[in-house]
Hints:
This protein is α/β, with parallel strands linked by helices. It has helices at 77-87, 93-109, 129-139, 152-155, 158-170, 185-199, 216-227, 246-259, 267-273, 289-294, 318-328, 344-349, 373-378, 386-389, and strands at residues 3-6, 19-21, 24-32, 35-40, 48-52, 54-59, 112-120, 144-151, 174-179, 203-207, 233-237, 261-265, 298-301, 365-368, 383-385. α5 (158-170) runs parallel beside α6 (185-199), α6 (185-199) crosses α7 (216-227) and α7 packs parallel to α8 (246-259).
Amino acid sequence: MNILVPHSVIAAPTAFGGRPQGDCLHGTPVVRGGRLIGLAPPEGAATQMILPRLTEPHCHLDKCHTIARLGQVGGDLRHAIARQYEDKANWTEDDLRTRASRGLAEAQANGCHFIRSHVDWGDGPAPPLSWSVLTDLAEDTPGLQLAALIGVNQWADADFAAQAAAAVARTGGVLGAFVLDHDRMQDGLTQIFAAARRHDLILDFHVDEGLGDFNGLEAIADMALATGFDGPILCGHAVSLMDRSPHDFARIADKCARAGITVCTLPVTNLYLQGRVDGTPDRRGITRLRELRAAGVRVVVGSDNVADAFCPLGAHDPRAALALACVTAHLDPPLGDWLPAITTDATVALGHPAGHVDGAALTDLLTCEVTHTANLISGRTVLRPARETLT
Length: 391
C-alpha cells in the first residue's frame, strides 16, 4: 500500500521518511505497535491520504436542527438571536437530547473526535437545562467539550461570575463570553479572566461578530497580556477586523500573537448574517485569515450554526467549513498548508496535544481515497478510520 501524508500534519517531516510529492510525503506506511511511525520508500502510485482525526472548535449543539420549526427566518445577528430565543420554549430535555445527539453523530461521521459546543447559559448564574443535557452527553462522548456562552455584561456582576464559574468548573467546562460593544465589557473581562485563573479553566469568546468599529478582540488581548494568563484562549468570529486600518490591524494582531490567542473563523454563519443589504451583499463576513496567520496568530476554522435561526444550512463538517473559507478568503494552494486549521492547530486551541501523524495510534488517524489535498478538503470522498485500511 502506498499513501500520502500532508507535510502540515507531521511534526518532523524530515525524519518521517517517504518522498516529497506536492505538499505531501509519499511512501509505504510503517506501522509498529498499532502506531504509524513513518514511511518507507514508495513501491508504486499512492491511492489514499492519511491525516489526524478532525477537530470541530466551534459549534452549537443546543441550537442545531431547529430550522424546521422556525418558519421563514433570515436576517442579521440580532434578528437571529431574537428568533432563536423564541424557540427556547421548545427546549425540553427530550428535544435537546435528540437534536444534540443528531448533531454530534454528524460531526463524528465527518471525522471529528474533539468537538467544542457552546451552550447558551441564560439569565441566571445556575446552569440551564441545556447544560445539564449536554453534560450528560459529554460523559458518554470522549472528546466533547462544552463552553458556557454568557454575555460579558453578565460576567461583570461579581456574584453572578462566582456562581457561574463554579458551576462550569464542577462539570469540567469552558468559560465563554459573548462580546459585542457591551457597555460593561472591561468589568466583564476582568471577572472572567479572574474566574479562569481561580478555577484553572480555558477561555472562549464570541467576539466582534459584526462589521464595524468593534474593539473586543483587542480588549481580550490586552487583558490576557496584563494578567499574564497562559491558558488557551479561543476567539471566534472577529469579523470587524475587516474594517480595521492596516495600522490598527497590525497592532491588534501583534497583541493576539503575543497573548497566544487563537482566532476561529466561522465562514458559513458569518457569510450568511454579516454585510446584509437590500440586495446581494458586497461585503465578506469573514475575518482576515491570511493576514492573521502571517502575523503569527494561530487560525482555526469551525462549522458554527447548523440548521437554526443563525444559518438555515450548514453542516457539522470541518472540511466543508474549510472549503468555504478557501473560496471566500482566497486561500491558495498548497491547500494542505491549511489542514492544521481543522486538525492539529484546532486541537491545540481546545487545550489538547496537537496529535500529529508521526507516532499516532491508528485509532487516531483517518484515511481518504484522494491523491491531492484539494480533493481532500473538497469532501468528494468519505473519511474512514485508518485502522480499517492499514491493518
